[in-house]
Write a structure and sequence with these properties.
The complex is a heterodimer of chains A (258) and B (223). Chain A has 258 residues and is an all-alpha fold. Chain A has one domain (58-257): MetI-like (MetI-like fold), CATH 1.10.3720. Chain A is built from eleven helices and no strands. Chain A has helices at residues 6-34, 44-57, 59-91, 93-108, 111-122, 126-150, 154-162, 167-205, 210-219, 223-252, 254-257. Chain B has a domain at 1-20 and 36-61. Chain B is built from eight helices and ten strands. Chain B has helices spanning 39-46, 79-84, 91-100, 116-129, 146-162, 174-180, 204-207, 210-221; strands spanning 2-10, 13-16, 19-22, 27-32, 54-58, 64-67, 134-138, 166-171, 183-188, 193-199. In chain B, the strands form two sheets. In chain B, strands 6-7-8-4-9-10 form a six-stranded mixed sheet, sandwiched between helices. In chain B, strands 1, 2, 3 and 5 form a four-stranded antiparallel sheet that branches. The longest helix of chain B is centred in the C-terminal third of the chain and has 17 residues, at 146-162. Chain B starts with a strand and ends with a helix. In chain B, 37% of the residues are buried. The mean pLDDT of chain B is 84. The chains are: A mainly alpha (258), B alpha/beta (223). At the A-B interface, helix 7, helix 8 and helix 11 of A face loops of B.
């Protein structure tokens, strides 16, 4: 019998297990459709068919790209601001303690409140939409990066000072590699949160995007449409997470595992 | 390099008292004192990391090389890159030093994969690549097993003899001090001061004679 080498066998077996798990979910879905009406829970093939037709009309792609654009903009904004705040709070003890209650408040502020206030204060426009999403994400990024700044190895920083390394070299060679695992972790959890909030923002105040389409199909009681858009967008986000963020994360974490 | 510290307090508690000494060319000076007597504080002052003290440290802007208690390497960088970090564009010198510390073969290995003994040797090579006028060794054999520590001491003896250096060794182990140093200062008291200066005149051959070193240690310090 063919035996795979252990190093290759393990990932293959894991992938196999994951595929089996997804197939089981599909089976359960099909089973559930036996007991419900097709307009309450359409069978998988109907949803896939719908994805196909929406794709061929161009609507699915257009709305997904618009949503993806918002996700990307809000994500970049939240990461940039959150990293800056987190680093500041981690590196300056007193400031960190002083602003800690603010952070706690922001962390516990419901996403919906931020969205509504942004729309009320800024108006029903793109700036408000993206800002609302970013504000929801900033405190999480800040908390993660604050831990990253606190975890910076003081011994290495002292070594850099002893050898009179320039600020640029210290930042690039000593500090940045220690922070990237935290940035990657914040990015991974950030993407998962941001796209879900973008849908709510679109549902409440935009006239395009996946969230808007979901709202439309909700009003038309079109469950197949809702599932088609959700599934398609989940696949896109999975693609970004497993194709970009996770590989990057495991690369920047490589030296920590040893 | 001249050191004249009169007073150093930490959280209002005096840590260091009167400590004066001078590092001389081609000579190893050892500071011997128990753990927690403020040796690390003293080294931080010499390195310019701590300026909150009374007294003077005159470097004459000398280049300093450090071998810290912990190797303090960048774990995500290779052995070569760790050395090149403090002296870029010195390819030949780096390779020559890697030969000296016996790490040529692992130059491309990531530092996180090194044993402590190997990491110490990288740290030594890093200290030497800046061509220091003063080499500061802070408990360089700490946490190594006896065989590895003995091996590293011999390596250090060779290197110190080959490079023309002022060396300051800080240690709690009299064997290390006697084997490596030409002058020995004993630290003690509260706050810590220099209590005794002992010149050690041993030939290069005698320094490599383990039995003789042990004998000198017991002559000087009893058991």
């Amino acid at each position: 019998m063919l035996k795979l080498p252990a190093s290759l066998g393990r990932p293959l077996r894991r992938t196999g297990l994951q595929i089996a798990s997804l197939l089981l979910l599909l089976g359960l879905w099909m089973l559930a459709t036996l007991f419900t009406e097709a307009d309450i829970l359409p069978p998988p093939w109907q949803v896939f068919q719908r994805i196909g037709s929406e794709l061929s009309q161009g609507d699915l792609l257009r709305h997904s790209l618009i949503t993806l654009g918002r996700v990307f903009a809000a994500f970049i904004l939240a990461m940039a601001i959150g990293c800056a705040i987190g680093l500041f709070m981690g590196l300056h003890k007193t400031a960190g303690r002083f602003f800690d209650p603010w952070l706690l408040l922001m962390l516990n502020l419901p996403a919906l409140v931020v969205i509504i206030l942004c729309y009320l204060w800024i108006g029903l426009n793109e700036v408000a939409a993206i800002l609302a999403v970013a504000i929801n994400k900033i405190p999480n990024v800040a908390v993660t990066l604050r831990e990253g700044a606190k975890a910076l190895d003081r011994d290495l920083l002292e070594m850099a000072r002893c050898y009179r390394l320039s600020r640029r070299v210290t930042l690039k060679e000593v500090i940045w590699p220690q922070l990237t695992p935290f940035i990657a972790a914040a990015a991974r959890s950030g993407l998962a949160l941001v796209w879900k909030i973008v849908l709510v923002v679109e549902l409440l105040g935009r006239s395009n995007g996946v969230g808007f389409q979901l709202h439309l199909y909700f009003q038309m009681f079109d469950v197949a449409g809702i599932l088609a858009y959700s599934l398609a967008f989940i696949v896109i986000i999975w693609g970004i997470e497993y194709g970009l963020i996770r590989p990057w994360e495991s690369r920047v974490n490589r030296w920590r595992v040893v | 390099m001249q050191v004249a510290i009169r007073h150093k307090a930490f959280r209002r508690k005096p840590v260091l008292g009167d400590i004066r000494f001078e590092l001389r060319r081609s000579e190893t000076t050892a500071l011997l004192g128990p753990s927690g007597c403020g040796k690390t504080t003293l080294l931080r002052i010499l390195a310019g990391l701590d300026t909150d003290f009374t007294g003077e440290v005159d470097h004459h802007n000398a280049r300093l090389g450090f071998v810290f208690q912990e190797p303090r390497l960048l774990p995500w960088r290779s052995v070569y890159d760790n050395i090149a970090l403090v002296a870029p564009d010195r390819r030949e010198k780096i390779h020559q030093l890697l030969d000296e510390v016996g790490l040529r073969e692992v130059a491309a290995l990531e530092a996180s994969r090194l044993s402590l003994g190997m990491a110490r040797r990288v740290s030594l090579a890093r200290a030497l690549v800046v061509e220091p006028e003063v080499l500061i060794l802070d408990e360089p054999f700490n946490s190594l097993d006896r065989a590895r520590a003995a091996q590293l001491r011999l390596l250090l003896l060779d290197i110190i003899e080959r490079h023309d250096l002022k060396v300051l060794l800080v240690t709690h182990d009299p064997h290390e001090a006697v084997q490596l140093a030409q002058r020995l200062f004993i630290l003690g008291g509260h706050p810590t001061e220099i209590q005794q200066e002992i010149p050690l005149e041993l030939s290069a051959g005698e320094r490599r004679d383990v039995a003789l070193i042990a004998q000198r240690v017991s002559q000087l310090f009893g058991d």
